Amino acid sequence: MIITTTPSIEGKQIDAYYGIVFGEIISGVDFIKDFSAGLSNFFGGRSRTYEDELINARHQAIDEMARRAAGLGANAVVGVDIDYEVLGSNNGMLMVTASGTAVRVSSKA
Questions:
Q1: Residue 17's pLDDT band (cuts 50, 70, 90)
Q2: CA 108 to chain CA centroid, nearest Å
């Protein structure tokens, strides 16, 4: 599965459009990660625990989007966009959404 932020793929021709596909992940931030991030904030430096959570959520959202595209018969997703939001009464949830257009591509003749 080719996944790209561009509207086309170099050397490929889009043969069919299957519509917009999404992948959404909502991940909770637990007490230990929150405490560890608080220490990084207090002493300075990067919060590796939050960074790892963000990276993991982004990969899961992209994988979910690709699965949904494949389910439609697509072999690529173009125009991909990733969005991040915090949810919940204490902003303790992270939502990552990946969206793009599912397409079928072939090599240019």
A1: very high
A2: 28
Structure-block tokens of residue 91: 């902003």
Q: Are 8 and 78 in contact (CB under 8 A)?
A: yes
**Hey, how many other C-beta atoms are within 10 angstroms of the C-beta on 86?**
11
What integer best gives the mean pLDDT of the chain?
85
Q: For the chain, how far is it from start to end, CA to CA, in angstroms?
A: 20
CA angle, 5 as apex, 58 and 18 as ends, to 5°?
A: 95
Name residues whose C-beta falls within 8 Å of residue 105's C-beta, 6 or more positions apart in sequence: 2, 9, 12, 13, 14, 15, 75, 76
d(CA 18, CA 32): 42
Q: Which of 81, 79, 97, 98 is nearest to 17 (CA)?
A: 79
Question: From residue 84, how far is each of 40, 54, 109 by CA, in Å?
Answer: 21, 9, 39
pTM, entire model: 0.79
